[in-house]
Target: Thiamine diphosphokinase
Amino acid sequence: MQKKAVILANGAFPTHEIPLKELKESKHIICCDGAINKLEKEALEPFAIIGDLDSLDPELKWKYKDIIHHFSSQDTNDLTKAVDWCISQKYNEIIILGATGQRDDHMIGNVFLLPQYAKKVRVKMLTSYGVFTPIVRSRNFESYTRQQVSIFSPNSETLITTANLRYALTNQKLELLWQGTLNESMGDSFRIEFEGGPLIVYQEY
Model:
Protein backbone atom coordinates (compact mmCIF):
# COMPACT_ATOMS: atom_id res chain seq x y z
CA MET A 1 0.00 0.00 0.00
CA GLN A 2 1.41 3.36 -1.05
CA LYS A 3 1.95 5.90 1.71
CA LYS A 4 3.49 9.09 0.39
CA ALA A 5 4.88 12.13 2.21
CA VAL A 6 6.09 15.47 0.91
CA ILE A 7 8.95 16.93 2.95
CA LEU A 8 9.38 20.70 2.74
CA ALA A 9 12.91 21.73 3.70
CA ASN A 10 13.83 25.27 4.71
CA GLY A 11 15.57 26.27 1.48
CA ALA A 12 14.13 28.18 -1.46
CA PHE A 13 10.37 27.69 -1.73
CA PRO A 14 9.49 25.94 -5.02
CA THR A 15 8.24 28.03 -7.94
CA HIS A 16 7.77 25.48 -10.75
CA GLU A 17 4.31 23.98 -11.29
CA ILE A 18 5.52 20.38 -10.82
CA PRO A 19 6.81 20.68 -7.22
CA LEU A 20 4.00 23.11 -6.38
CA LYS A 21 1.45 20.53 -7.54
CA GLU A 22 3.03 17.90 -5.29
CA LEU A 23 2.85 20.30 -2.36
CA LYS A 24 -0.71 21.49 -2.91
CA GLU A 25 -2.12 18.00 -3.46
CA SER A 26 -0.38 16.37 -0.51
CA LYS A 27 -2.25 15.57 2.70
CA HIS A 28 1.01 14.65 4.41
CA ILE A 29 3.29 17.70 4.30
CA ILE A 30 6.22 17.23 6.67
CA CYS A 31 7.97 20.53 7.44
CA CYS A 32 11.61 20.78 8.39
CA ASP A 33 11.59 23.23 11.29
CA GLY A 34 11.51 26.80 9.89
CA ALA A 35 9.93 25.71 6.58
CA ILE A 36 6.58 26.08 8.32
CA ASN A 37 7.07 29.85 8.20
CA LYS A 38 6.96 29.63 4.39
CA LEU A 39 4.14 27.10 4.28
CA GLU A 40 1.99 29.42 6.39
CA LYS A 41 2.29 32.14 3.77
CA GLU A 42 0.86 29.71 1.19
CA ALA A 43 -2.11 28.90 3.45
CA LEU A 44 -1.23 25.18 3.40
CA GLU A 45 -1.54 22.88 6.40
CA PRO A 46 1.39 20.82 7.71
CA PHE A 47 0.88 17.24 8.82
CA ALA A 48 4.00 17.28 11.02
CA ILE A 49 6.91 19.57 11.89
CA ILE A 50 10.31 17.96 12.47
CA GLY A 51 13.59 19.38 13.75
CA ASP A 52 15.47 21.05 16.55
CA LEU A 53 13.07 24.06 16.43
CA ASP A 54 15.91 26.59 16.28
CA SER A 55 14.27 28.55 13.44
CA LEU A 56 10.58 28.25 14.31
CA ASP A 57 8.61 31.41 15.17
CA PRO A 58 7.30 31.25 18.77
CA GLU A 59 3.71 31.89 17.65
CA LEU A 60 3.84 28.98 15.21
CA LYS A 61 5.50 26.79 17.82
CA TRP A 62 2.42 27.30 19.99
CA LYS A 63 -0.07 27.00 17.12
CA TYR A 64 1.32 23.66 15.95
CA LYS A 65 2.41 22.26 19.30
CA ASP A 66 0.39 19.07 18.78
CA ILE A 67 2.19 18.06 15.58
CA ILE A 68 5.74 19.11 16.47
CA HIS A 69 8.33 16.37 16.83
CA HIS A 70 11.42 17.77 18.51
CA PHE A 71 14.80 16.17 17.78
CA SER A 72 17.65 18.09 19.40
CA SER A 73 20.53 15.95 18.10
CA GLN A 74 23.08 17.83 16.00
CA ASP A 75 24.47 14.63 14.47
CA THR A 76 22.10 14.93 11.50
CA ASN A 77 20.41 17.83 9.74
CA ASP A 78 16.67 18.53 9.85
CA LEU A 79 16.11 16.95 6.43
CA THR A 80 17.57 13.64 7.58
CA LYS A 81 15.52 13.84 10.78
CA ALA A 82 12.39 14.32 8.68
CA VAL A 83 13.23 11.41 6.37
CA ASP A 84 13.98 9.13 9.33
CA TRP A 85 10.69 10.14 10.97
CA CYS A 86 8.77 9.35 7.77
CA ILE A 87 10.41 5.94 7.58
CA SER A 88 9.46 5.27 11.21
CA GLN A 89 5.86 6.14 10.30
CA LYS A 90 5.88 3.59 7.46
CA TYR A 91 5.88 6.00 4.52
CA ASN A 92 7.25 4.18 1.48
CA GLU A 93 7.57 7.16 -0.88
CA ILE A 94 9.03 10.58 -0.11
CA ILE A 95 9.17 13.71 -2.27
CA ILE A 96 11.62 16.34 -1.01
CA LEU A 97 11.01 20.02 -1.83
CA GLY A 98 12.79 23.20 -0.76
CA ALA A 99 16.14 21.48 -0.29
CA THR A 100 18.07 23.73 -2.70
CA GLY A 101 18.63 27.47 -3.03
CA GLN A 102 19.70 30.04 -0.43
CA ARG A 103 22.86 28.18 0.67
CA ASP A 104 24.90 26.34 -1.93
CA ASP A 105 26.69 24.19 0.65
CA HIS A 106 23.36 23.00 2.07
CA MET A 107 22.16 22.18 -1.44
CA ILE A 108 25.22 20.04 -2.23
CA GLY A 109 24.96 18.28 1.12
CA ASN A 110 21.25 17.57 0.63
CA VAL A 111 21.73 16.18 -2.88
CA PHE A 112 24.47 13.80 -1.77
CA LEU A 113 22.43 12.60 1.19
CA LEU A 114 19.89 11.14 -1.26
CA PRO A 115 21.67 7.78 -1.78
CA GLN A 116 21.64 7.25 2.00
CA TYR A 117 17.86 7.70 2.01
CA ALA A 118 17.40 5.53 -1.09
CA LYS A 119 18.69 2.49 0.78
CA LYS A 120 15.58 2.67 2.98
CA VAL A 121 12.78 4.32 0.99
CA ARG A 122 11.80 5.47 -2.51
CA VAL A 123 12.77 9.12 -2.68
CA LYS A 124 13.14 12.03 -5.11
CA MET A 125 14.21 15.64 -4.69
CA LEU A 126 12.29 18.17 -6.79
CA THR A 127 13.68 21.65 -7.37
CA SER A 128 12.28 24.55 -9.37
CA TYR A 129 14.25 23.31 -12.39
CA GLY A 130 14.33 19.51 -12.31
CA VAL A 131 14.44 16.34 -10.27
CA PHE A 132 17.25 14.42 -8.56
CA THR A 133 16.67 10.66 -8.29
CA PRO A 134 19.06 8.42 -6.33
CA ILE A 135 19.31 4.84 -7.58
CA VAL A 136 20.86 1.77 -6.02
CA ARG A 137 20.27 -0.58 -8.96
CA SER A 138 20.04 -0.42 -12.76
CA ARG A 139 16.78 0.98 -14.15
CA ASN A 140 14.92 2.74 -16.96
CA PHE A 141 13.85 6.38 -16.81
CA GLU A 142 10.91 8.02 -18.53
CA SER A 143 12.11 11.01 -20.52
CA TYR A 144 11.57 13.08 -23.67
CA THR A 145 13.77 13.92 -26.63
CA ARG A 146 16.53 16.39 -25.75
CA GLN A 147 15.79 16.35 -22.04
CA GLN A 148 18.95 17.41 -20.21
CA VAL A 149 20.32 14.62 -18.02
CA SER A 150 23.27 14.44 -15.62
CA ILE A 151 24.68 11.43 -13.78
CA PHE A 152 26.61 11.81 -10.53
CA SER A 153 28.64 8.91 -9.15
CA PRO A 154 29.70 9.33 -5.49
CA ASN A 155 31.69 6.10 -5.83
CA SER A 156 34.36 6.75 -8.46
CA GLU A 157 34.86 3.00 -9.00
CA THR A 158 31.31 2.37 -10.24
CA LEU A 159 31.12 1.00 -13.78
CA ILE A 160 28.29 2.63 -15.75
CA THR A 161 26.65 1.77 -19.07
CA THR A 162 23.88 3.90 -20.62
CA ALA A 163 21.38 3.43 -23.43
CA ASN A 164 19.59 6.17 -25.39
CA LEU A 165 21.65 9.07 -24.07
CA ARG A 166 23.51 11.24 -26.57
CA TYR A 167 26.89 10.68 -24.91
CA ALA A 168 26.94 6.97 -24.22
CA LEU A 169 28.85 5.32 -21.41
CA THR A 170 30.06 1.73 -21.75
CA ASN A 171 31.45 0.17 -18.57
CA GLN A 172 32.87 3.57 -17.77
CA LYS A 173 33.86 5.15 -14.47
CA LEU A 174 33.01 8.74 -13.59
CA GLU A 175 36.07 9.51 -11.52
CA LEU A 176 35.19 13.20 -11.10
CA LEU A 177 31.70 14.45 -10.25
CA TRP A 178 31.39 16.75 -13.27
CA GLN A 179 32.16 14.03 -15.83
CA GLY A 180 28.59 12.71 -16.08
CA THR A 181 26.91 16.10 -16.45
CA LEU A 182 25.33 17.78 -19.49
CA ASN A 183 24.08 14.66 -21.23
CA GLU A 184 20.86 14.48 -23.24
CA SER A 185 18.05 11.98 -23.75
CA MET A 186 17.46 10.70 -27.28
CA GLY A 187 13.80 9.75 -26.83
CA ASP A 188 10.98 8.93 -24.45
CA SER A 189 13.17 6.83 -22.17
CA PHE A 190 16.76 5.95 -21.35
CA ARG A 191 18.48 3.27 -19.29
CA ILE A 192 21.35 3.29 -16.83
CA GLU A 193 23.08 0.05 -15.84
CA PHE A 194 25.85 -0.06 -13.27
CA GLU A 195 27.89 -2.22 -10.95
CA GLY A 196 28.62 -0.77 -7.55
CA GLY A 197 26.89 2.53 -7.02
CA PRO A 198 24.87 4.29 -5.88
CA LEU A 199 24.17 6.96 -8.52
CA ILE A 200 22.24 10.23 -8.55
CA VAL A 201 20.43 11.12 -11.78
CA TYR A 202 19.27 14.65 -12.57
CA GLN A 203 16.59 15.36 -15.20
CA GLU A 204 15.38 18.82 -16.12
CA TYR A 205 11.61 19.35 -16.37
Notes: The chain has two domains: 4-128, 136-204. The longest strand covers residues 189-195. Residues 104-118 form the longest helix (15 residues).
